[in-house]
From TrEMBL:
GO cellular component, one term: cytoplasm
Protein known as: Pyridoxal phosphate-dependent aminotransferase
Highest rank taxon of the organism: Bacteria
Organism name: Thermomonas carbonis
InterPro entries (alphabetical): Aminotransferase_I/II_large, Kynurenine-oxoglutarate_AT, PyrdxlP-dep_Trfase, PyrdxlP-dep_Trfase_major, PyrdxlP-dep_Trfase_small
Chain ranges of the Aminotransferase class I/classII large domain: 26-377
Needed cofactors: pyridoxal 5'-phosphate
Record NCBIfam families: PRK09082.1
Molecular function, one GO term: kynurenine-oxoglutarate transaminase activity
Amino acid sequence: IATKLPKVGTTIFTVMSQLAVEHGAVNLGQGFPDFPVPGRLVDALTRAMQAGHNQYAMMTGVPALRQAIAGKTERCYGWQPDADAEITITSGATEAIFDAIHAVVRAGDEVIVLDPCYDCYEPAIDLAGAKAVHVALDPLTFAPDWAAVRAAITPRTRMLMINSPHNPSGAMFGVEDMREVASILAGTDIILLSDEVYEHIVFDGARHESALRYPELRERAFVVSSFGKTYHCTGWKIGYCIAPPALSAEFRKVHQYNVFCTFAPAQHAFAEMLVEEPEHYEELGAFYQAKRDRFRAQLLTTKLKPLAVPGGYFQLVDYSTVSDLDDAAFCRWLTIEKGVAAIPLSPFYETPPAGQRLARLCFAKNDATLDAAIERLRLL
Ligand code: PMP
Ligand code: GLN
């Protein structure tokens, strides 16, 4: 069959999780927490089902949840979107990213992505008949090169995609970066897609620079987030997209024929959580910072060199003192021979930097899981 996605195989997350199961490895590869969701959320979900919220939700999402997101956005970023016209609930951030791209990107258009980038971006661009234009982040700090982004813009550029806190590196954009984005987009009709799924997982007192804080950005942006990251429930696949009314209208044209709506009971449960327990997302940074600090201290007793992690729940490690294998081979070896599954960075790139020796470890895990991994990593 003539494939529409010649560059795509099975995602690295599936490949490495399978390998972890086959070899009994501690799985620090695919990004998912191994601890329970908040008790109140489970209660709220059960109550929502018992109360009969089991049929199709509104296409745009349960109104109480859209209202709750509007309130949370105001609380966090000082601006309140219109719950009816500007917020749409999706089946995870993945659906939101797919819908946003397909809503506005046409065949022949170009979309600028910053490498390394999350693996669902380029296939969605390809399926729209458009071209992903890759601009590399710094291979060590993962800082953006805004001059290179400027230079990559052509009359065909339709969209710029950004992701802060960043997967896989944890790097975060500062105010200056957001000003650069605004200045680059000013006077163009380029749309911004800001992937902010790790918005609440930020460390050391830093502030998440949401595109929603900046009027000149939010007026041309799809801002995407996911409850999977914030509420330890990646398997529920509920996310959302905030965009101005005209962009949301186009977004909803795709959403309504892609999935129409998403799991109704969970939407009621998240509405309750956001309103009744804002401490959950407000304290999430501190919760993960403790895990990061504990894990980093342990890694320093191994031969792996941990890089700085400003946000998110991934720790990059430099393994060059352990092995000269390329990252894909190293991660397979680590999983099969040493019993710890990790994710290589090369699948996040069009062209991986030559000689890069980095692997990604997920620390969204119970202390016991991380301890078991460290015990094995000490033997490297
Ligand atoms: N964007 C990034 C940067 C991610 O890390 C993920 C999940 N790993 C997603 C999007 C997708 O989120 P969801 O699981 O809600 O579809
Ligand atoms: N986002 C998760 C990660 O980066 C994986 C999600 C998936 O498996 N598709 O590990």
